[in-house]
Amino acid sequence: MRITVVGTGYVGLIAGLGFANFGNDVICLDVVPEKIEKLEQGICPIYEPGADEILERNLAAGRIRFTLDVKEAMEHGQLIFIAVGTPESPNGEADLTYVFEAARNVGRYMQEYKVVVDKSTVPVGTSEVVAGLIKEELQKRDVELEFDVASNPEFLREGKALQDFLYPDRIVLGVDSKKAEDLLIKSYSAFKRARKPFVITTPKTAEMIKYASNAFLAVKITFINEMAELCEKVGANALEVASAMGKDGRISPKFLHPGPGYGGSCFPKDTKAVSDTAKKYGARLSLVDSAIESNEYQKDRSAQKIIDNVPEGEIGILGLAFKPETDDIRESPAIWIVKRLLECGKYTVRLYDPQAMKEFKALFNDVQGITWCEQAYDVCKDAQALAVVTDWDEFKNMDFDRIKSVMQGDVVFDFRNIYIPDELKEKGFRYFGTGV
Questions:
Q1: Residue 51 class from Cβ within 10 Å (0-12 exposed, 13-18 middle, 19+ buried)?
Q2: Cα–Cα distance for residue pair 226/69, rounded to 1 Å
Q3: Do residues 134 and 118 touch, judged by C-beta distance below 8 A?
Q4: What 3-state DSSP class applies to 376?
Q5: Are 254 and 243 in contact (CB under 8 A)?
Q6: Long-range contacts: 429-435, Cβ < 8 Å, 24+?
Q7: By the 8 A CB rule, do 82 and 119 touch?
Q8: What is the model's pTM?
C-alpha cells in the first residue's frame, strides 16, 4: 500500500519503518531539513535499538523515502498517518497546532480518496476537528473529494518501540466507515495473518483507549512508589511487597517497580491532558490528578533523600535518560534531582549516561557545577555519594571495590533498586534504596 507518515519523531519514524518493513511503499514527511538529510543518508535521529538496521534495509530496498515536499507526501498516500508532536501547553492541555496543520495540508493537496489517521496522542474528539479542517480546505479549492478520518493510537515503549510495533499486543482502529476499516486492516495485514487482536471501535473510543491506558499505568507506578515510601517508614521491604502483589493474576508484576518517579514523552503529558479533558467535561479524575501531584513529589523526595544524608560535596549521578535504552530526557527524574542539588549551593555533580549526554548537555549547557563524564567509573571519582537514577544494564554489575577506592564518601542512593543492599553494606557503604 501507499502510505504517508507526517512527522519523523519517535512515533512517526517507528511507524514509517514498521510499515516499510512489512512491504508497503512509505513516504515520511518532516519540516526539518537536517533531519530529512540524515534519514536519507541512513542516519537515525533517535536512539532506538534496531532502528538503524531497519532504516538501512528499507532504504536500500526502496520501500521508504523521506521528504520536505508537502504536496508530494499528501498526494502519495492512500493512508496518511498524522504522527506529529502534541506537546503540553502551559495550562496542561495538548497543543494540537501541528496536528491541525497536517490536516489542513491534506485538504490542500489531496486528489483522491484518503484515510487520514490520527496516530499522535490526541484528546477525545480530535478526529472530528481534523475532518472539519480538511473539509474547509477542500471548500476553498471548490472541490468535492471523499475521505475518512480514523484513529490508530500507538502503544510504543521507548527502548522497545520497534518490538512493540512489529509484535503488538493489540491494534486499535477507530473508524466511522467500512471502507476506512478495510484499508487500515490491509495496511496491518501481517498482523491479521498472525492473529493479533484487532479492536475495531469509533474514533472517540480509540482516542480514549490511549489516554486511559497511559493514565492507568501512571497510576500503577505512583501507587507502588507511595507504598515504597510507607515501607521505608514502617521497616517493610517494598520489593517483596511488589513481588507478592505481582503474583496475583488480577494485578500482574508489570509497572510495580519502585523508583524516583515516571518521566518521558507520554505519561506526564498524557495524564495532564486527560485531566484537562475531564475538567472541560465536568468529570472527576481524582486518581489521575493525585498521580500527577504524587509523581512530582516522588522526584523531589529522591533529591531530598540525598540532601538529608549528604551535607555537601560532589554527587555522582549514573543515568540521565528517563529510562534505559533511550536518549530521551523529557521529564526525567534526573533533571529534577540535578536542579535541586545545584540550587542548594552546597553540591556539585558528576554526570554520565550511555546515550543521553548530548541531550542533557543541551539543557544544562551554561550551568556551573557540572562535570561531564565519559564513562560510569568517572562519575565516582572523589564523589561524596553515588546516585543511580536510570537502571542501564552497564550499571548493574559495577565493581564496588574499585568504586570505593576512588570515592571520598561512602553513600549509595540506589533509586532503581538494582543492587543487593547487604552486599554494599558489607563493603562499607551506606545504602539507600527506594522502599528498602
A1: middle
A2: 49
A3: no
A4: helix
A5: no
A6: 429/400, 429/404, 430/309, 432/305, 432/309, 434/225, 434/228, 434/238, 434/258, 434/259, 434/260, 434/302, 435/224, 435/227, 435/228, 435/229, 435/231, 435/232, 435/237, 435/238, 435/239, 435/241, 435/258
A7: yes
A8: 0.92
Give the C-alpha distances (Å, rounded to integers) separating 390 from 177, 179, 371, 393: 45, 46, 18, 9
User: Could you identify the residue written with the cell 536500500?
Assistant: 60
How far apart CA 14 and CA 162 sit, in angstroms, is 6
Active site residue 266: yes
Here the cell at position 70 is 508537502
* 71 contacts: CB under 8 Å, gap ≥ 6: 109
Name which of 145, 64, 82 is nearest 110 in CA terms: 145
Residues in the chain, overall count: 436
Backbone angles phi, psi at 54, to 5 degrees: -70, -35
Residues 275 and 92 sit within 8 Å (Cβ to Cβ):
yes
For residue 380, the SS3 value is helix
Q: How would you write the pLDDT of the chain (436 residues) with one tens digit per residue?
A: 999 999 999 999 999 999 999 999 999 999 999 999 999 999 999 889 999 999 999 999 999 999 999 999 999 999 999 999 998 888 878 899 999 999 999 999 999 999 999 999 999 999 999 999 999 999 999 999 999 999 999 999 888 999 999 999 899 999 999 999 999 999 998 887 767 789 999 999 999 999 999 999 999 999 999 999 999 999 999 999 999 999 999 999 999 999 999 999 899 999 999 999 999 999 999 999 999 999 999 999 999 999 999 999 999 999 999 999 999 999 999 999 999 999 999 999 999 999 999 999 999 988 999 999 999 999 999 999 999 999 999 999 999 999 999 999 999 999 999 999 999 999 999 999 999 9
Catalytically annotated residue among 266, 344, 373, 380: 266
